[in-house]
Amino acid sequence: MATSDFALFMGQLFRKPHQVVALAPSSKGLCAEMAAELDPAKGPVIELGAGTGNITRAILDAGIAPEDCHSIEMNPDFCDRLRANFPGLNVYQMSAGDCGDLPVENVQAVVSGLPLLSMPTQLQRDIMTGFASKVQPGGDYVQFTYGPKPPVTSVVRDELNLTWRKSGKIWWNMPPARVYRFRQQG
Ligand SMILES: C[S@@+](CC[C@H](N)C(=O)[O-])C[C@H]1O[C@@H](n2cnc3c(N)ncnc32)[C@H](O)[C@@H]1O
């Protein structure tokens, strides 16, 4: 019998805690906030750190066609699950640091479930530079975080001239989280 998405997530968290870096998959409320500003008329979406697909599901529920959603995940077991759960979704088993190489342009947003704050500055820089190269003018990098600070380090924010907005606290998540939307100015 196939394991549930939750059991798969918890098993991988146990085996690879430094990659998964979460107590549980994101809640429905958090996923809905991550996808809240997506518009099927505005073009494709890149998703980073898709895991077992909770945020992916919210992206598709927002009306984005699976063919217009490009999901990066480095864990091969999660990639197999994403392919099984979401026919037509573009799944790439690779590091999010290489998102600038994806075969898609002019995306409306990059939606990230990555543990960005725990990543080294150079990897954050690669991810955010990839975002800047793929997004259409006015498009956002959407990232949740559990902590009190913006989840992109100030060095990278300054280098790429990023401003941000943040959501209210989403209490129905383990642990409670906020969603940040970063945008490149100029
Ligand atoms: C906190 S979990 C989020 C999973 C799911 N999006 C959710 O919100 O429930 C982080 C995910 O990012 C993936 N990940 C971590 N580092 C990565 C990297 N450098 N490139 C791609 N995926 C990565 C992990 O394998 C894991 O699936």
Please give a structural write-up:
The protein has seven helices and seven strands. Strand 4, helix 6 and strand 5 (135-145) form a beta-alpha-beta unit. Strands 3-2-1-4-5-7-6 form a seven-stranded mixed β-sheet, with helices on both faces. It is globular and about 50 Å long. The longest helix is centred in the C-terminal third of the chain and has 14 residues, at 121-134. Helix 3 crosses helix 4. With 186 residues, the chain is α/β, with parallel strands linked by helices. The protein has one domain (5-184): Vaccinia Virus protein VP39 (Rossmann fold, 3-Layer(aba) Sandwich), CATH 3.40.50.150. The structure holds S-adenosylmethionine. The site of S-adenosylmethionine (SAM) has 22 residues, from helix 2, helix 4 and strand 2.
Write the layout of secondary structure elements.
Blueprint: H1 5-15, H2 17-20, H3 28-35, E1 45-48, H4 54-61, E2 69-73, H5 76-85, E3 90-93, E4 107-112, H6 121-134, E5 135-145, H7 154-160, E6 162-166, E7 178-184
Parallel strand pairs: 1-2, 1-4, 2-3, 4-5
Antiparallel strand pairs: 5-7, 6-7
The structure holds S-adenosylmethionine.
S-adenosylmethionine (SAM) is lined by residues 19-22, 25-26, 49-51, 54-55, 72-75, 78, 95-97, 113-115.
